[in-house]
Amino acid sequence: MRNLSIAVIPGDGIGQEVIPPALEVLRAAGTKFGLHFEFAHFDWGAEYYFQHGAMMPPNALEQLAAHDAILLGAVGHVDVPDNITLNGLLLPIRRGFDQYANVRPAVLFDGVDSPLAGRAAGDIDMVVVRENTEGEYAQIGGFLYHHQPEEVAVQTSVFTRRGCDRVIRHAFELARKRNGKKRVASITKSNAQGFSMVLWDKAFQQVAAEFPEIETESLLVDAAAMNFVRRPHTFDVVVGSNLFGDILSDLSAIVTGSIGLAASANLDPTRRFPSMFEPVHGTAPDIVGKGIANPMATVFSAAMMLEHLGEEEAGRAVHGAVVKVLAGRRERTADLGGSSTTAAVTEAMLGEL
Ligand code: GGG
Question: Does residue 113 lie within any of the structural domains?
């Protein structure tokens, strides 16, 4: 029996509703595959902020570092400015634990309808690899004449050669490992961002030379957005900056049916620190408390966590259970056109497992 210690941060909104199903599925997988999970719960997020004036305590990373991995639900609240939720919890964990590769798969599964005409199951199978520690999310800047009529804001993106190289190399290694089209698309806006993204392009060219068997293309982000809709079947691994990767992975999620299926892994590939797994979706205040949130993105994320922890068989089983429920077209939440509850979908996944 292998013991795995998982830090669990349900966070806010439907984060609180999608994490318990994922823990149930993980426990069931543990029973089947000889894994004992210890789940350490952290009540960080908006409620914590209302009580303490911070999204998490000052020694949060110290507390999390003791665990094998982190499972996160969602963070955000209508009464807390978005920059506080992001900069007070998500970004310090991603940066502090050097989780530089945010891996976001998007697959059109059997039983799921794409909003794009003529796309069948398996037609779309891509992964967006988002740079996760710098770029447009670096939080370098400030205000001048703040709160005065003539106020000025300056925000600087930070692109380091090390940061570009390592995430681009991760994308190529993923393309090599995947049973896919062996293709990496790099996304920039280097015609307008003439320094940072020119550096990115140079890094892309040089890293690509190490992987001669992988086909490459470079796209401006506007063209990439168009082509995610026009020819999504041509993409395999897509690598982009923090902001572009974030935006494009919402697009890849919706062309494959729903953001309720979009999983993500914030990876420290060096394994110095715990990696963090979270659904791409946010807190969905419009459906909080109704018991209808789709737990599948979180369960897919849990499957990615198992794989990262070396439990490939268990990860495949959890992933496969979700895929089977989708293919059955019976239990499905509203985002997929159904009327099932979170609990009913969870029962179905457990049944398949
Ligand atoms: N599932 C985590 C969550 O709440 N994500 C919403 C969000 O605002 N994410 C921003 C980001 O990933 O940069």
Answer: no
**Does a structural domain hold residue 195?**
yes
**Which atom of ligand 1 sits closest to the CA of residue 85?**
8
CB 342 within 8 A of CB 295: yes
Q: Closest Cα to atom 10, ligand 1: which residue?
A: 86
Tokens representing 49 are 């902020």
What does the pLDDT look like over 222-231, one tens digit per residue? 999 999 999 9
Active site residues: 145, 189, 222, 246, 250
Instruction: Say if residue 217 is in the same domain as residue 129.
Output: yes
Give which of 172, 74, 94, 185 is closest to 135, Cα–Cα.
Answer: 94
Domain that holds residue 220: 125-255
Same domain, 95 and 140: no
Atom of ligand 1 nearest to the CA of 91: 13
**Pocket around ligand 1: residues whose beta carbon is below 6 Å from it?**
72, 74-76, 86, 90, 246, 278-279, 281-283
Residue nearest to atom 6 of ligand 1 (CA): 282
pLDDT in tens, 96-118: 999 999 999 999 999 999 999 99
| pTM beyond 0.70, yes or no | yes
Domain boundary among the residues 233, 255, 277 is at: 255
pLDDT of residue 281: 97
Considering only CA atoms, which of 109, 104, 120 is closest in space to residue 267? 104
Pair (234, 172) in one structural domain: yes
112 located within any domain: no
Residues 71 and 147 in one domain: no
